[in-house]
Amino acid sequence: MTKSGTDTAELGYEQARDRLVEVVRELEAGGLSLEQSLALWEKGEELAKLCERHLEGARERIEAALASVEDEPGDSQ
After folding, report:
1. Cα–Cα dist 11/47, whole Å
2. How far apart are CA 43 and CA 62, in angstroms?
3. Residue 47's CB: how many other CB atoms inside 10 A?
4. pLDDT in the model for residue 5
5. Within 10 Å of residue 10's Cβ, how many Cβ atoms?
6. Are 2 and 43 in contact (CB under 8 A)?
7. How does DSSP classify residue 23?
8. Which residues, other chains included, contact 6 with Cβ-Cβ below 8 Å and sequence gap of 6+?
9. How many other C-beta atoms can be found within 10 angstroms of the C-beta atom of residue 6?
């Protein structure tokens, strides 16, 4: 089963994504009990939500940066 050394909420995007990939591989490999499979599924859901939060934060920063560039005077054509 996956290692849970670091609290999921502390993971960066790449770490969460990599752990999610690991969870999916373990689930696809099979051979787990129902309880193990459910625990992994729940961990995967948690990791997927964390990845989505990271991506949403990145989208917001990009949109803010684009808006500030568009608002700068003197760049009109």
Report:
1. 9
2. 29
3. 23
4. 46
5. 9
6. yes
7. H
8. 15
9. 11
By percentage, how much of the chain surpasses pLDDT 90?
A: 74
Q: Which amino acid is at 39?
A: A
Residue 33, H or E segment: none
DSSP 41-58: HHHHHHHHHHHHHHHHHH
Q: What is the distance, to the nearest Å, from the Cα of residue 14 to the centroid of all Cα atoms in its chain?
A: 7
- Whole-angstrom distance, CA of residue 71 vs CA of residue 30: 54
Q: What single-letter amino acid sits at 23?
A: V
Structure tokens at 18: 């990599």
- Give the mean pLDDT of 32-54: 97
H or E element at residue 37? helix 34-71
Pair of tokens at residue 54: 């990271």
* Stronger pLDDT, 53 or 5, i.e. the higher one: 53
Residue type, 24: V
